[in-house]
Amino acid sequence: MGDSVTPEILSNMIRQYFSQERPEEEAIQALNHLRRVLHEVSPFAQEPVDCVLWVKADEVVANDYNPNVMSSSEKKLLKHSLEQDGFTQPVVVSEEKEHYLVVDGFHRQLLGRKADTRKRLKGWLPVACINPERKGQASRIAATIRHNRARGKHQITSMSDIVRDLSRLGWTDERIGTELGMDQDEVLRLKQISGLTELFQEEDFSPAWTVR
Predict the structure, then answer these.
(1) What is the pLDDT of residue 183?
(2) Which residue of 43, 52, 125, 197 has the lowest C-beta tally within 10 Å?
(3) Which PANTHER family does the protein's record reference (predicted)?
């Protein structure tokens, strides 16, 4: 067992690798590669926070369904926190083919692009990718709503629009309630707010709305 690699030997090899002069982007990509490898063998591989990656800010794209609204005072406090404490929470994203779609952390990624923070982060943002099985429009929407509701922040009108969209995507009231943490009365009320009678009757939908 004399040839076995110990954590100390591995640490020294990593330090030696990064002590060599190389472009910054190459070093960041190497760090991401190592984090992915560690994530693969981690006992916490099912937890997205176990693998925080640095990606280019321009590759992080906001979603178009987030009902979370932040007041100007909250934005100011978040900006101050990012400046004083740094990024303590990654932006939660879905890893797509050509970009990373924001699931949670819209305001963090937005402020991360501002001049001062962008300069400090060298144009990169920390992200945690949701588990692959949670991909797909409906699952992403549900994940975003769960994050927002866990903080007690969401807009009723936007929530009703999302319930409408999930219903059109083929989700039952029971599934909507389970995934979004609502009882059936709340689901029904949000459907009523949307004012769409189609949600209460049988209707054929385009294949484009079908969840696969």
Answers:
(1) 87
(2) 43
(3) TRANSCRIPTIONAL REGULATOR, TRANSCRIPTIONAL REGULATOR-RELATED
